[in-house]
Design brief:
Layout lengths: L2 H4 L6 E3 L8 E3 L9 E4 L12 H6 L4 E4 L9 E3 L3 H12 L8 E6 L4 H14 L4 E4 L4 E3 L2 E3 L8 H13 L4 E5 L2 H5 L8 E6 L13 H13 L1 E7 L5 H7 L3 E6 L6 E8 L4 E7 L2 E8 L5 H16 L3 H10 L8 E3 L7 E5 L4 H12 L6 E5 L9 H12 L2 E4 L9 H12 L5 E4 L3 H11 L5 E5 L6 E4 L2 E4 L2 H11 L1
Parallel strand pairs: 2-3, 3-4, 4-5, 6-10, 6-11, 7-10, 11-12, 12-13, 13-14, 18-22, 19-20, 19-22, 20-21
Antiparallel strand pairs: 1-5, 7-8, 8-9, 14-15, 15-16, 17-18, 23-24
Helix pairs in contact: 3-5, 4-9, 4-10, 7-8, 9-10, 11-12, 12-13, 14-15
């Protein structure tokens, strides 16, 4: 595509040969090939303008810059580099989002499960569905590795174009607060935006909770229809930002889609489902966790506003099993105790998981958890207090310490634990912590492994090591 065609609809100043042909888009100078447009993005740690000369040497045909550089090459000069990158990416790939039914899910917790529910339901309704999220990306049944929950704009639009090319006509995508704040989805209009909840997380990135909420709200300003959780106070912020029709789901407050008589067991959850106060059906799901009633309501509400068969959603909900690492009951070979694997890595998700398990636990709840390094440190003592208050016994251990001293993280978690009367121990080595918990478990006890979920690695001192808790549990069962 010619440079002048690529920039025809964006606010910019173009220098150099306007007819320059652009073969590809890159924001990483190491990946630049001949004919590419290189985006000089002013990042948090590095300034892309410093790599412009390197990109030119590798064959870049043009640069997008926030300030003109002293280089003999066509340059697109813009005021908002991230917005311009997203707009150019949309145009370069032929606005693929416009060819898909776009469903975006945002919130602190529940995004992954809702996207899986909707993917299955949309497929039952006859759609070929793409999925972009935390665990992996999918085109139909084909799995694709993912680095970010929501990819950078050029990668995202390239993936959407690939989905369209392979016959997809719908997409469900987890839209993270980072992606909204960094404008990765700018230029895209969503058919439906879904809000799950808002609790403390990512305050290492956002300046405060209000900033976090404001980032999430951007999705609803870009959505034709919105499906919001009426039981979360932050829904009002999302509703205020909404430009389109708003529908609510909830259990405790008045909503368009609601549930009552919720029964949670180790095997699953059942509840009465209402649409506009009319009882539709008593749903029986094979996934456990009280919070999955909310996830189910969000999925059913989304199908309704899209005008798709409710039966497809009900069939999906009554036949699906736990999403990998989301309140997933692991086999223990008849040992008498249970092990539940959950991605709970925020204060609210940890509280929700333990409280949900408490509804059916016959014995003690033993919670193994930690907090990630290089992330929001403020939540560490909060999570310690939650586990100390709600669990019968806690084992504080490492999550992904990344580049931080793991023992410093443990001290911060333990500070919150000490505010309670909860019994606990501290074992930094996660494998040993899991072993300790499983060895102490007795008949009817439940061991919750919180924080890692679907992850198959542990990151220590910047290095990723193989660590799949499903595999580790099998190994530990043979040892004990």
């Amino acid at each position: 595509m010619r440079l002048d065609e690529l920039t025809a609809t964006i606010s910019c100043q173009l220098t150099g040969e306007a007819g320059t042909e652009i073969a590809g888009l890159q924001y990483d100078s190491r990946k630049v090939q001949a004919g590419d447009l290189f985006f000089c993005i002013s990042g948090f740690k590095k300034d892309g303008h410093e790599y412009a000369e390197s990109a030119v040497k590798q064959g870049a045909a043009a640069l997008m810059v926030a300030r003109q550089l002293d280089l003999d090459i066509p340059q697109i000069i813009v005021e908002d580099d991230r917005l311009a990158m997203a707009e150019i990416a949309c145009r370069f790939y032929g606005d693929p989002a416009k060819k898909l039914m776009m469903i975006g899910v945002t919130g602190t917790n529940g995004k992954t499960t809702i996207t899986y529910m909707l993917k299955s339901a949309l497929e039952k309704a006859g759609k070929k569905v793409g999925l972009i999220g935390t665990i992996h990306n999918m085109i139909g049944d084909q799995e694709i590795h993912t680095e970010h929950t929501t990819p950078e704009a050029p990668d995202l639009n390239a993936l959407l174009a690939r989905m369209v090319g392979e016959g997809c006509n719908a997409l469900v995508i987890e839209v993270s607060s980072h992606s909204l704040a960094l404008k990765r989805v700018a230029g895209i209009t969503f058919d439906v935006g879904i809000f799950t909840n808002l609790t403390q997380d990512h305050l290492d990135f956002h300046t405060d909770f209000d900033d976090y909420a404001a980032a999430k709200a951007k999705l609803f300003a870009a959505s034709r229809q919105c499906v919001l959780n009426a039981d979360d106070a932050a829904y009002k912020t999302m509703q205020a930002a909404a430009k389109g029709c708003v529908k609510l789901y909830g259990i405790n407050n008045k909503a368009d889609y609601s549930a009552d008589d919720i029964v949670v067991t180790p095997e699953g959850i059942s509840f009465n489902y209402y649409r506009e106060t009319q009882l539709v059906k008593r749903l029986n799901m094979h996934v456990t966790g009280y919070f999955n009633a909310y996830n189910a309501l969000a999925a059913l509400g989304t199908l309704d506003v899209l005008g798709l068969p409710e039966s497809a959603g009900i069939e999906t909900l009554e036949t699906m099993h736990a999403v990998d690492g989301r309140c997933q009951v692991l086999p223990t070979g008849g040992r008498g105790f249970s092990v539940i694997l959950d991605y709970a890595h925020t204060p609210d998700s940890l509280q929700s998981t333990i409280s949900s398990v408490r509804r059916f636990a016959k014995g003690r709840i033993i919670t193994v958890f930690g907090c990630g390094g290089d992330r929001d440190a403020k939540k560490r003592p909060i999570m310690g207090e939650i586990s100390g208050r709600l669990s019968d016994f806690s084992v504080i251990t490492s999550d992904n310490p990344r580049t931080e001293d793991p023992f410093k993280i443990l001290e911060q978690v333990e500070a919150g634990m000490k505010q309670t009367s909860g019994e606990y121990t501290v074992i930094e080595n996660r494998r040993e912590a899991m072993k300790y918990a499983m060895q102490m478990a007795k008949q009817d006890d439940i061991v919750i492994l919180a924080g890692k979920g679907h992850e198959t690695y542990q990151e220590i001192n910047g290095v990723k090591y193989d660590f799949d808790e499903k595999v580790v549990v099998k190994e530990l069962l043979s040892e004990i």
